[in-house]
Amino acid sequence: MSRISRNISIILRTERLIAQRNMTVLAKRAGFFAAAGLAGGLAIIMLNVAGYLALASVMSKPLAALVIALINLIVALILAAIANSVSAEADTAPVAELRDMAIGDIEAEVQDIMSEARETVRDLRTVSRDPLGTLAPGLVTMIASAVLKHLKNRKE
Question: 44-70: b or e for each residue (b if 16 or more CB lie within 10 Å)?
Answer without folding.
Answer: eebbebbeebeeeeeeeebeebbebbe
